[in-house]
Design brief:
10 strands, about 40% helix, three-stranded antiparallel β-sheet, single chain, alpha+beta, Immunoglobulin-like, five-stranded mixed β-sheet, disordered N terminus, elongated
Amino acid sequence: MIRFGGVDVDYDLLSINFVSALLFVCVIFFPDSPLRIVLGVPFVLFFPGYTFTCALYPGRDVLDWVDRAALSVGLSLSAVPLIALGLNYTPWGIRLHPVLVSLLLFTLGMSVATMYRRRSLPEEARFVPTLSVKVPRWGELGRSDRLMLTGLIGFTMISSGFTAYLISTTSPPYSFTEFFVLGPEGKFGGYSKNMTLGESGTLVLGIVNREHADVAYTVVVELENDTIGGFEDIRLVHDGRWEGNFTFTPERIGDNMRLKFILYRDGGAEPYRSLQLFVTVKPRE
């Protein structure tokens, strides 16, 4: 335990939140640093579940270290997708920085809850990990503990190997362009799939440049192979983002007509990316 800002903070919680804050600084100011991968793996796969587990089971004798480690990984793998799902229904969407901040706040919140729960127990009954850990012999473990320990070791080895591969690779960074269509409220889904002739619909087109170079984009929109609009000369630097509202009014009726969005790069003649939706236009009553 260490006293921090007038508050007693356990070493494990302080270390986890320090590493999380370090990752945040790394992502913001050093986005291409290998340290981002090293810190990101435990930040996503262990920290959220560990703090959640400690908040649920603050007592020392409730779980052994094998169960606690396995539950930490399992809860992390459950919490992260749920947080991302919640972000999908917010104006920020599922993007790197909102996900990072949300996980930071979740880990910090669970850390505060853990501190409160631990303080409600006698000091000798609290679970606070130390560097002095007695590792039981393999024969002393039950069958379930052996299975969980084997899975945990295998998962750790695979994650460590994958992280080492990402760090050691010397290949150039992967270049790509994010091209997406959002509903009128700027969220995934909510598209107008059924329209009436003469009715206007609005969609949000988005582009994010991950090409590690300046790129000029052109967007062409087609309805059943007929061009109905688009955007020209969209110039973005690396990591640059563009969103634009596209409003269209179908001039003919039809079932499941293909609304296609075609992205061209640097004046190329061939489409670079394409997306499509299907709309049904009915006659006026």
